[in-house]
Amino acid sequence: MNPIPSQPIAPELANDAALVRLVVDRRPEALAELYDRFAPVLLALARRVLGAAGDAEEVVQEVFLLLWNRPDRYDPGRSSVSTWLLLLTRSRAIDRLRTRQVVERTHESASAEGWDGDASPEGPESVLHRERHERVRREMANLPPEQRQVIEMAFYQGLSQTEIAARADLPLGTVKTRTLLAMKKLRSALRSEIRQLL
Amino acid sequence: VNGPETREDRTILEALEALEGAGPLAGEPGAVARPAPSPSEAADAAETLARLYTEVLGLLPYELAPAAPRPEARRRLLRAISTAEAALPSAVAAPPAPAPASPRRPREEAGAAPLAAPAPIAPSAPIAPIAPIAPPPRPARRRSLWPLTVAAALMVALAGLSLWLYTGLVRQEAQIEALRREIEVFRSRAGEPGAAATEAALLRAQLAESREKLALVTSRAVEVSPLRPVGEPPVQPGASGILFVAADHQHWYLALEGLRPVPPGRVYKLWFVADAGTVDAGSFTARAGEPVELSSENMPAGTRSAVITLEDDPATEIPAGPEVLRAAAVYQIL
Predict the structure, then answer these.
(1) Where would you tag: which of A60, A81, B31, B250 has the fewest CB atoms within 10 A of its CB?
(2) Is the pTM of this model over 0.90?
(3) Interface predicted TM-score (ipTM) of this complex, two decimals
């Protein structure tokens, strides 16, 4: 028997931030809805960072447990729910990566195998997420390879700009410039997606 | 994914529209031609830009093909929260409400509206009870600061640069215009090539120098480092400065304000803290109420900070006098 009294909600009517408010009210069905919306992309991100499905799933569990236990940590003035959950997942995954101290090996393994996520037959739940996936993938592919490289090293491996410069054998100034140029291009190219998030 | 906009969201969207539609931002080519923003406008723009970049980071994982979690994982999560909830008295089960929108801007405080509550309908999937499983162990955490660092650096650097553009660049443009007019005067004296030509050449050199400074502080990827008073209490609390370092890490320009005039025989000295140690970067004095500007095409390798001291001996090779100003963090402008 489920010990938590739950009331039905309207997933298609509830925006992400409203669902977080329902989590504050201890509504497990709101957490379930957020899980259904975001777990696939969160899991893809955790796998991209960690390169191991077992660890990645645990990271996603951690993030949703944190959301349940401390929904007050979400500040709508700072980011969308999607961004908050994804950056939280990234931080947790990178923490695990550093703990295991196999940063380079796992990343190279994931890259060498050309791992592109474990797309499920069902695919993402919403058309919106599918369109967002296509759009972001296209814009990332449009970045010059050298700019994409620094963004990926910083975001998925959690490397500082100094560490990237050392690993890529580049001057620090070059790394900074490439990072900033890439971020600026993405900012411009993904404007409509950002508006949807807001 | 998100539904109707809140009032706060609309404010952000309007700010985004303004940012995108207003042409180049501070620090980009062409920004000097626009009227400098007020400090509050600059702070708003910086905050909005930081939010914008945070959302860009949040979009990056969408490039990955989504991965369906195992159904057991969903059940395990929901069972875990059911178990935890059942173990808690209802009076203490509810956590505090989500943090309000960023309180730094009064406009947001006034405009922040509660998030819309959804209308009830059936949940997407039933929450089935399963055997309790403890939540997965959490590893020792070390929070990654990269996204926050990017956002904070953008905010502070843009705000700082805008303020300095507001004062310093207007002054520099006026100086350039004055120099240009003086050169024209000297050119008009075609029959007196001697002293007039020499002075005109000097003015041209000054003009070129001013243009270089202008180009430096408005260039992309310039690094900005504010200098703040040192000491408890500060030796000179009214003094401040800002150091601009070009992307080549060689050209730099330092603007100082509020330094007290030095007593006779004493000088201010600028030191760069670099790989080779503390390097003497020059001596200077100050006049009451007048800014001090220093620049050079060379900076020691690996310079990490800058310090200004007040020295009794102008020839000293190591800082011996009291520190007046010290560079804090380094921020980078797009």
Answers:
(1) B250
(2) no
(3) 0.81
One-letter amino acid of B5: E
Tokens of B132: 């309790």
Q: Which amino acid is at B157?
A: A
Q: In the 8-state DSSP scheme, what is residue B307?
A: E
Q: How far, in Å, CA of A182 to CA of A192, rounded?
A: 17
Residue A99 CA: distances (Å) to CA of A14, A93, A94, A158, B25: 37, 10, 8, 13, 40
Q: CB within 8 A of B189, min separation 6: which ones?
A: B196
Q: How far apart are CA B208 and CA A23, in angstroms?
A: 62
For residues A186 and A131, give the distance between their C-alpha atoms in angstroms, rounded to a whole number.
Answer: 16
Interchain CB contact of A102 with B (< 8 Å): no
Contact in structure between B239 and B220 (CB atoms under 8 Å): no
Find all residues with CB under 8 Å of B153, minimum gap 6, and list them.
Answer: B331, B332
- Paired residues of B116 in beta bridges: none
Cβ distance A45 to B61 less than 8 Å, yes or no, reads: yes
- Separation of alpha carbons A12 and A19, rounded Å: 11
Q: How far apart are CA A61 and CA A167, in angstroms?
A: 32
Rounded Cα–Cα distance for residues A158 and A171 (Å): 19
CA distance B26 to B145: 25
Most B CBs within 10 Å, among A22, A151, A176, A194, to test the B interface: A194
Report the share of chain B in percent with pLDDT over 70: 52
The predicted-structure confidence for B107-154, as pLDDT tens digits, reads as follows 333 333 333 333 333 344 444 433 333 444 555 555 566 777 777 777
Q: Are B52 and B19 in contact (CB under 8 A)?
A: yes
Q: Phi then psi for A83, rounded to 5 degrees?
A: -65, -40
The type of residue at A194 is I
Q: What is the CA radius of gyration of chain A?
A: 18
Q: Where are the alpha helices (DSSP H) in A1-71?
A: 16-24, 28-50, 53-69
> What is the torsional sign of CA B300, B301, B306, B312?
negative
Angle at CA of residue A128, ends A126 and A133, nearest 5° = 100
